[in-house]
């Protein structure tokens, strides 16, 4: 039974810091990455609670694919992880506006690829989902995890040491030069 699914693409709201979800919700930030120099792609993401505490994260090596597909994979992996963890009130943020727009377009019909249909299948499950656009400077942790995915796959049940400062800085709006 489907409770509520909404794909909402918001423009930047004038803040560059990570914005926590409402009480009872978690936020997933995802990103895809493709190496300019090698035919490798990866994706990554992080799930955080209202206080910004790390719930889980992932990196995933994809092999060779397009940037668009890497972004689709990131959304699929992020939603799958949330579902597997029993999380049912999700805000998913991505800097891939084209992918978010595609997911909001019910006219895709047979034009959607396998990843599109896999994401749509997950969206139809019994949970509350909101999709939001997050500019790249509010998605730095996910971007870093996606770049890790260029060479490895991992489930991260705790925040890795190399990300602790970045997670804190992103929450405070202290964004590194990208």
TrEMBL record:
GO terms of molecular function: nucleic acid binding; RNA-DNA hybrid ribonuclease activity
RNase H type-1 domain span: 29-148
Pfam families, per the entry: RVT_3
Annotated TM spans: none
Domain of life: Eukaryota
Cited Gene3D superfamilies: Ribonuclease H-like superfamily/Ribonuclease H
Protein name, entry field: RNase H type-1 domain-containing protein
């Amino acid at each position: 039974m489907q409770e509520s699914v909404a794909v909402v693409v918001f423009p930047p709201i004038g803040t560059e810091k990570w914005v926590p979800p409402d009480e009872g919700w978690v936020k997933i930030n995802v990103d895809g990455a493709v190496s300019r120099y090698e035919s490798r792609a990866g994706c990554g993401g992080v799930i955080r609670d209202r206080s910004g505490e790390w719930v889980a994260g992932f990196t995933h090596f994809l092999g060779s694919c397009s940037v668009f597909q890497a972004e689709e994979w990131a959304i699929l992996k992020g939603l799958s992880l949330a579902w597997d963890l029993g999380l049912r009130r999700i805000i998913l943020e991505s800097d891939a506006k084209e992918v978010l727009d595609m997911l909001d377009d019910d006219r895709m019909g047979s034009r959607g690829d396998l990843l599109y249909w896999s994401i749509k299948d997950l969206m139809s499950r019994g949970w509350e989902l909101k999709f939001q656009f997050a500019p790249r400077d509010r998605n730095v942790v996910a971007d870093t995890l996606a770049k890790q995915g260029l060479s490895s796959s991992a489930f991260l049940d705790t925040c890795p040491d190399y990300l602790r400062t970045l997670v804190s800085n992103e929450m405070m709006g202290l964004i590194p030069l990208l």
